Amino acid sequence: MPSAPLTLSLHRAISELPAEEWNACAGGDNPFVSHAFLAALEESGSATARTGWLPQHAALRDPEGRLLACAPCYAKNHSQGEYVFDYGWADALERAGGQYYPKLQVCSPFSPVPGPRLLIHPGAGIGPAAMAQGLAQACDDLGLSSAHITFCEGAEWEALGEAGWLQRLGTQFHWHNKGYGSFEDFLGALSSRKRKAIRRERRDAAASGFVLKTLRGNEITPKHWRAFHRFYRSTTDKKWGRSAYLTQRFWPLLGEALGDAVVLMVAEQDGEPVAGALNLLGREALYGRNWGSLVDAPFLHFELCYYRAIDFAIEHGLPRVEAGAQGEHKIQRGYLPTPTYSAHWIAHGGLRRAVGDFLERERPAMLQEMEALATLSPFRKDGEAE
To answer: Is the pTM of this model over 0.85?
Structure first.
């Protein structure tokens, strides 16, 4: 670790940090921590102070001003749009006379996508603990109750635990490519009953009369983006009954900023888009993100969100598809339980002890749940007949 003192600064907009410097720390593996993605969220009015996501992006520099590390950070006055739930923690502190909000959230907003969160330049000579120490100090200086690093990588999680942060486990469902040459190869690895069920679902989706397309980059037109915002609002209105975070401006900004890394699975009827599933492409994975539909058609959701994503991953040699948060129904379609990680720093000693005790009990329970879910795997067991 460098002996010279390092300086941590917080920035109210991603535009205050040069994209080249940020991306040199973020790398190119995960689009959700890229400068372009974060800028699209801010420029579109999606992740802003107005929506309760005040950017406080952290930058750690050496005495010569070189950016050694950075992190996407937000001061928040609520716990919405995060997918790692701490409402009970907030309620406990406030019932005890404390103030939980504002807090510091280190994440990719509205994106339950695992990936790096403490973005360290490869030549920095520091580890996650240096950045974590700076974030905890920033919380103290600003009077924030806590810092939460959600959907971080496993190595970051381990380092943060060693640095005294509280560790939390979650689960998602990911599909892994075992070197399949085609979708039929993947089906061949499943039990006969599951294989037949998926073939039937794909057949019924194809027979529904929709034109199904996989679009990428500039193949996605303004017409598609206008339609997709309607799909997105349809989903959020059904689930939460309130205004959605992502604005209509976000989608075309995303498409312009990320280009061919944007992959849209769409269903059209009489030339009009009626359903779609949005994905972002990283070096090692296709990340399923948003889905919505204006029609009710058998198995269309499974076809656009899961099966066409598998098709795309096989065609492009991707190791995995990450299908987002929740959904045990994904298991029967080849998406198996995978741990996710978050780490938490809490200033209040009493709350820190209470949360730490809760997490000590929650972690083994989560591991047991993942083991139980894995028994539902559709893949053939050793010795099982095809």
So the answer is: yes
